[in-house]
Design brief:
This protein is α/β, with parallel strands linked by helices and 413 residues long. It contains 14 helices and 20 strands. The structure holds adenosine-5'-diphosphate. This is Aldehyde dehydrogenase domain-containing protein.
């Protein structure tokens, strides 16, 4: 695994480039946090591989016991297209450390990095048959994994709709263990005491980064009434300076959406927003002569019953809302079927503690957003799924616990 990590570092440009041409991701961004996370994940879990151990059990009476933690077996990873290389290692690294063999199916939109990473696995000396990559479409290749009788576990990242199909297929086949990292509609709550410029930068990054194609996108932004007007004005100004274009160009901040289907879906949500009575503060249409580029879009005058606030759009579309009190912010932030991430911007420690404990989401970013590290567990509440990627918790997904019980002295039988 250490050798594998070194090979990732040596091929960082290539991986970043493949992600850029496959997914329209910024080459600059791919080179830095995403791809660095890949080798970091491998090293983190390589360090964990020899620290997997069981417990001794005192039991009662004449018996004692211990537990073994064993690899869960053959793992099927089915992943999405928005973070092709990072997601590959979020799945593969802990499963390898747990001692599993695996089949990974990348999204049909973005097979290149997965194939390249399979090649690097071979160069790193990982035995044949341990890390396998199968490309193909979801209903065929993905479904073959989720319904396979000899696959023991499926670890999925993708939409909530497909997550449901995966659970059904697992239930109808061999009851394989399932973990799901699904959609989100994450709130970012900005309080009156926040530095407005910093809060605007954080909120724009939270939803426009990676052209909004992020399950953790902070697409519902709640701003307290005292700074709301100032925030709106600055957000509009800054969104207009956000450069949309060629993902390879170092000056670009937002590349094209992944494909035509996604492009059209986002534009149809923007139309829904306009027709539903929301006010378009900025953006609102496709840009450029060709390619699937969409302007960074901000809606104001939105309410929680609108589809643009309820549904995951997976594009550069922010809904900006005003609130008065902490209680109201908590209630509205929680008024979603999802629970993946949330952001809080304030310098008030009491507010941080209260809100972070009250929001039902798997990760809370305070005065920051989109910060990931291999030791930081990631995964949702509610319809954002269950089971953690990253951290020592992710290892548990790929391990079984077996109890062994013996008599202390002579066998009573
Ligand atoms: P998105 O909505 O982000 O495109 P999807 O949930 O459609 O995400 O796809 C995520 C992954 O799930 C992809 O690898 C895709 O091929 C796969 N997939 C899609 N449909 C199915 C299915 N019926 N069974 C298993 N995997 C599927």
């Amino acid at each position: 695994m250490m050798k594998y990590a070194d090979l990732i570092d040596e091929n960082i440009e290539e991986l970043g480039f493949l992600d850029a041409i496959d997914a329209g991701k910024l080459f600059r961004a791919s080179k830095s946090p995403d791809i660095h996370l890949c080798s970091h994940l491998l090293r983190y879990y390589a360090g964990a591989a020899d620290k997997i151990h069981g417990e001794t059990l005192k039991m009662s009476g004449e018996f004692q016991g211990y537990t073994l933690r064993e690899p869960i077996g053959v793992v099927g990873h089915i992943i999405a297209w928005n973070y092709p290389s990072g997601m590959f290692f979020m799945k593969v690294a802990p499963a390898l450390a747990a001692g599993c063999t695996m089949i990974l199916k990348p999204a049909e939109q973005t097979p290149l990095t997965a194939l390249f990473c399979a090649h690097l696995a071979k160069l790193a000396g990982i035995p044949d048959g341990v890390v396998n990559v199968v490309t193909g479409f979801g209903p065929k290749a993905g479904a073959a994994i989720s319904s396979h009788m000899d696959i023991d576990k499926v670890s999925f990242t993708g939409s909530t709709e497909v997550g449901r199909l995966i659970m059904q297929a697992a239930a109808q086949s061999n009851l394989k263990v399932v973990s799901l990292e699904l959609g989100g509609k994450s709130p970012v709550i900005i309080f009156d005491d926040a530095d407005v410029d910093m809060a605007v930068d954080l909120a724009l990054l939270g939803v426009f980064h990676n052209k909004g194609e992020m399950c953790i996108a902070g697409s519902r932004v709640y701003v307290q009434e005292g700074i709301y007007d100032k925030f709106v004005q600055k957000a509009a100004e800054k969104a207009k300076t956000w450069v949309v274009g060629d993902p390879i160009d170092p000056l670009t901040r937002q590349g094209p959406q992944v494909d035509k289907k996604q492009f059209e879906k986002i534009l149809s949500y923007i139309e829904l927003g306009k027709r539903g009575g929301a006010t378009l503060l900025t953006g609102g249409k496709a840009c450029g002569e060709k390619g699937y580029y969409i302007e960074p879009t901000i809606f104001t005058d939105v309410t929680e019953d609108m589809l643009i606030v309820k549904d995951e759009i997976f594009g550069p579309v922010m809904s900006l809302m005003k609130f008065k009190t902490v209680e109201e912010a908590i209630e509205r932030a929680n008024s979603t079927r999802y629970g993946l991430a949330a952001g809080i911007v304030t310098n008030n420690l009491n507010t941080v503690n209260r809100v972070s404990r009250s929001i039902r989401a798997g990760i809370i970013w305070v005065n920051c957003y989109l910060v990931f590290n291999p030791d930081c567990p990631f995964g949702g509440y509610k319809m954002s799924g269950f089971g953690k990627d990253m951290g020592m918790h992710a290892l548990e997904k790929y391990l079984h616990v077996k109890s062994v019980v013996t008599p202390i002295y002579n066998s009573p039988w």
